[in-house]
Design brief:
With 275 residues, this protein is an alpha/beta fold. The chain is built from seven helices and seven strands. It has one domain: 3-Layer(aba) Sandwich (Rossmann fold). The structure holds NADP nicotinamide-adenine-dinucleotide phosphate (NAP).
């Protein structure tokens, strides 16, 4: 119904892996569990490995699985980041600057999010604002703070307008199908009556699109991606996809992004989704 691309092929996967190998640094927010942790695991494991994997978490002392991974892979760097705290964002930028130096940051993955479940009857202004702050405002503030490092990476990789992609500079916002306004109708409208989460992801989609307009002249690719319904704390045990399945496909899509994907909303299979 919304696809404009066929399933990812083996050559797609290989060319995506080559892009990651040319990519100096990838930063993942909310990397201590769920899809963020899986992103770091899959990036470190093999084909998709970039130069530096910067894994952020708000509490490294309790991020045991992430620390275990970092002990095994010397290219994983753990940095503290509470995505809703401006001071924490600023400190994180400074630490990342130390790590990447004049190479800048190639790929920022705004993954951290919350899901405050509330329907029409239980929703409150506070729940709406809290969910909006973490899922839509934070990715925007983080991208603003990292802009100098993203621009630095983009200018180093510049070789013509057609060279957009993670090997140059990209902002990937982890969005969700439930943020699609168009799909919230008919049969589908009766699932997931989550006002705070759904509205926050719609807002994130708009943020992604606006950033795509504003950062295009700097050569920074911006897009929103839906990872599928996945078995994490947020997705729940009944979800059909494992984190490994979602992320291996998602990384193939991210690695293959180019200027034609700038400003898009896609799923983990590379299919275009309706806004
Ligand atoms: N799972 C799915 O089925 C699904 C479907 C569609 C979209 N997504 C999207 O995929 C992304 C990852 O989801 P997930 O399933 O991995 O969720 P998850 O298991 O609930 O993990 C959420 C992550 O976000 C972090 N986080 C939340 N608030 C934070 C803050 N203020 N500062 C720093 N980190 C914060 C959490 O850290 P703490 O441990 O410190 O809380 C945790 O690492 C999200 O953007 C989500 O909306 C997931």
């Amino acid at each position: 119904m919304w696809s404009n691309r066929t399933r990812l092929t083996q050559p797609d996967m290989m060319s995506a892996q080559a892009s990651f190998q040319k990519c100096g640094s990838v930063l993942v927010t909310g990397a201590n569990r769920g899809l963020g942790l899986q992103l770091v695991k899959s990036l470190a494991a093999g084909g998709f490995s970039p130069g530096k994997i910067i894994a952020t978490t708000r509490d490294p002392s309790s991020a045991l699985k992430l620390k275990e991974l970092a002990e095994k892979h010397s290219n994983i760097y753990i940095v503290v980041l509470d995505v809703v705290n401006q001071e924490s964002i600023q400190k994180c930028v400074e630490e990342v600057h130390e790590l990447v130096q004049e190479e800048g940051l190639n790929c920022l993955i705004n993954n951290a999010a919350i899901n405050l479940v509330a329907d029409f009857h239980t929703v409150t202004a506070e729940k709406m604002i809290e969910n909006f702050r973490t899922n839509a405002v934070a990715p925007l503030m983080i991208t603003k703070a990292f802009l100098p490092l993203l621009k630095q990476a983009a200018s180093r990789g510049a070789c013509g307008a057609e060279s957009m992609g993670i090997q140059r500079a990209a902002v990937i916002n982890m969005s969700s199908l439930v943020g699609s306004v168009q799909l919230t109708w008919g049969e589908r409208a009766h699932y997931f009556k989550w006002y705070p989460h759904r509205a926050s992801k719609s807002a994130l989609n708009m943020v992604s699109r606006c950033m795509a307009v504003d950062l295009e002249s700097d050569g920074i690719l911006c897009m929103a991606i839906h990872p599928g319904w996945v078995r994490t704390d947020m997705g729940g045990p009944q979800a059909p996809l494992s984190p490994e399945e979602s992320i291996s496909s998602l990384l193939s899509v991210i690695g293959g992004l180019s200027e034609k994907d700038h400003g898009s909303f896609q799923n983990y299979k590379g299919e275009t989704l309706p806004w």
